[in-house]
Every structure is written in structure tokens, then in C-alpha cells.
Amino acid sequence: MYIITGMHRSGTSLVSNLLYNMGADFGPENEFLGANKWNVNGYYENKHIVDLNNKLIVGNQSSIEDWIAANERGDFLRGLRWSLNKIHYFKLPGTETILSRAGKKQQVFNQLTERFPKLVTKDTRFSLTVAAWQKYGSIDRILYVFRHPSEVAQSLRKREKMPLWFGYRQWLLHVDRFFESADLDRVIIFYYNNLSDPDKQMDEVRRLFRFLGHEWSAQKGEDLLTRTFDRSLRHHVGDDESLPKPVRQRFEGLMEKHRLCTSEMVQ
Questions:
Q1: Interatomic CA distance for residues 208 and 11, integer angstroms
Q2: Within 13 Å and on the Cβ side, how many CA atoms surround 66?
Q3: Is the pLDDT of residue 40 over 50?
Q4: What are phi and psi of 191, to 5 degrees?
Q5: Quick check: 67 pLDDT over 70?
Q6: Distance between CA atoms of residues 23 and 209, nearest Å
Q7: For residue 82, what are the CA distances in angstroms to 62, 88, 177, 223, 250?
Q8: Would you list the domain boundaries of the chain?
Q9: How far apart are CA 52 and CA 98, in angstroms?
């Protein structure tokens, strides 16, 4: 599998839209989670993979059908049940707990990896479950998408009514969990904010071509952005000065990892 992940509200859906328009195989569209007001172009998430990731994080009481009913059909009771399950995200399980749950679902991992051996699949929850997928699934390559943390925190406050301090806490947790567990030799790092910078956007688009193993040319990159990139979807602007010190330090570390990834690409 080719995995796209990152912290929630970091541009993973937009990046998936770009990859989809490059011809990436995201699997059957009738198995996608539907679009809503928060992602008008869709999530590009396979419901079976999201369901498994949710069960690894929340437990077996989680049901993807509740999400679908709440978001696509406006079912109040199922929406309430889904919202109650989301409370578990306020106290996330550790990696050992997730691995323990994954060990009991080896058959599900086998079924998904056999059915989708080369699937391109996006889910922010991979930030927390990547260790389980490396142990029980099959990962060819990972595209890790990150965004300025103040923009993430602002977006979470707008969507989930989270206070900024909690949004920063979640950002730190998701970033740390991923980089503690992921096989970094398989990771390509993508900085969402550079898509809005004319001087840097081509360097980021080139990473998408590398992720899929497609032949790169600047003209192909220009054509892709012209067809698919909507600048109006960026609603917040990052501010380094507003970041709590631990968040700023981790963000600077991510930017350095991104720079090193750039150096590897031009060699």
C-alpha cells in the first residue's frame, strides 16, 4: 500500500485530490467516505481502512456506518454515537495498546492487504496506527503531509471547537507518534504551505511524482496545479511567533527533515 497521512486538518485531502488527478489508484469510489462541508472535494478515504484504524484507536465499539449515517444521511442518533466515540481521541491509547488490538485483527489486515496490494490510501489516523500496519500489513511508501501548526490549531478550533492549547497538544502527539514508529526510509515529507508559494510549489509537486513513481517534468507539474489546485481552500495563515515553545521546536525539526528530504531528491 501507498499511505498518505499527517495530522488532522493538514491538507491530506487536498494532496490526495492532486494524486487522484495524477491517476493514483484509490480503489473503488463507491467505498470512499463521502464529501461534506469540511472537505467539499471528498476525503479519498477507503471506509474499510478507516474502520480498521478507528477500531485500533477507539476499540470495537467504533462503527464506520455511524460516521456515514451522520455525515452523509444526517442520522441524529448515529451522529450522536459517532460523536461519543470521538471522545476517545481526547485520551488516545498508546502504541502498545494499538499493537495489541492489531494482533487480534490479523485476518482483517490480511484481507485488506491481499485485496489492495498497491492501493493509494489516505487516513490521518495512520499517524497513530502506522506501527500496526508495518507489523501486520504491507507498506510500500508513505507520504507524510504537514502544515504550519498554528493553522492546524485554528482549523481544529473552527471545526471541532477545540481550544488552541488542545489543538497544539494533539498536533504534538500525532507528529511524535508517527516519527517514533514509522520506517523513515519509506517516508516522503510534504509541506502543505509551500503549495501557496509560487517559488516553492513545484518542489512539493515533484514529491507527489516521486511518491507514485511517476516520471517528473516541470510541465507536468504545472498542468497538474492548473487543473486541480484551488488557492481559496486555504483559510488560515501560520504565525511562528504564536507557537508554544515545544510546538515551535518540533515544527523546526520537521522543517529540517523536509529540507533533508529535498536534498535527497536533487541528488
A1: 13
A2: 17
A3: yes
A4: -100, 110
A5: no
A6: 11
A7: 8, 11, 24, 40, 31
A8: 2-266
A9: 11
Are 181 and 134 in contact by the 8 Å Cβ rule? The answer is yes
How many other CB atoms are found less than 10 A from the CB of residue 94? 10
Place of cell 508517527: 178
The answer on pLDDT for 118 being more than 70 is yes
pLDDT digits 0-9 by tens, 131-161? 999 999 999 999 999 999 999 999 999 888 8
Q: Other CB atoms closer than 10 Å to residue 205's CB: what's the count?
A: 24
Instruction: Please state the pTM of the whole predicted model.
Output: 0.90
Q: Would the pLDDT of 236 be above 60? A: no
Smallest Cα–Cα separation from 108: which of 49, 21, 181, 175?
A: 49
- CATH 3.40.50 applies to domain 2-266: yes
Contact 85, 60 (CB under 8 A): no
> Which of 176, 188, 205 shows the shortest CA–CA distance to 141?
188
Angle of CA points 237, 238, 239, to nearest 5°: 125
CA 164 to chain centre: 20
Q: Which distant-in-sequence residues (6+ apart) come within 8 Å of 129 by Cβ?
A: 53, 56, 57, 98, 102
CB 139 within 8 A of CB 5: no
Nearest to 38 by CA among 260, 249, 233, 226: 233
Phi-psi region of 11 (alpha: psi -120 to 50; beta: other; left: phi over 0): left
Rounded to 5°, angle at Cα 211 from 136 and 202: 150
DSSP state of 11: S
Instruction: Say which residue the cell 467516505 belongs to.
Output: 33
d(CA 1, CA 23): 15
Taking a C-beta distance cutoff of 8 angstroms, is the pair 51, 128 a contact? no
The three grid cell numbers given for residue 135, joined into one nine-digit string: 507489523
